[in-house]
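This part of the workshop introduces the protein records we will be handling. As an example, a complete record with its sequence and its structure tokens follows.
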Amino acid sequence: MVIVVVFFGLRYIKSSNVGAEPVCLNPMSREQVEVRVKDLPEVKEYLKQFSSGGGIVETDQKTRHYYIAHVYEIVKEQGEIPFHAATFNWYVADECNGQIVSSMFSYDENGNPEGLNHDYDKYIND
């Protein structure tokens, strides 16, 4: 027996086997994740400060079910270290339902920081 579930507009198939995981039929791509992260209110506000595209949003890695997106800038230094990445935040995006969770801070609907996010580990340890 196969059960089809519609969730956030994307389809999953779940096998009737006990303990079987849902299978994502229409997973998000890296590019789609990056577009969705760039659309978050706090990321939009952060990226405004860079007139020439200095702020970077990229998918850093993918676990079994999630993409990990990094939002940062490259800071050029004088001296021995030529540059380093200054992180604004990390985000976890579920490839099937599109949910995006900040790894460092929780934000309200206007993009204002509310505090630290303590639920991040449950997303990356799948």
Summary: Confidence is low (pLDDT under 50) at residues 1-15. The helical segments are 30-38, 41-47, 121-124. The first strand starts at residue 2 and ends at 7.
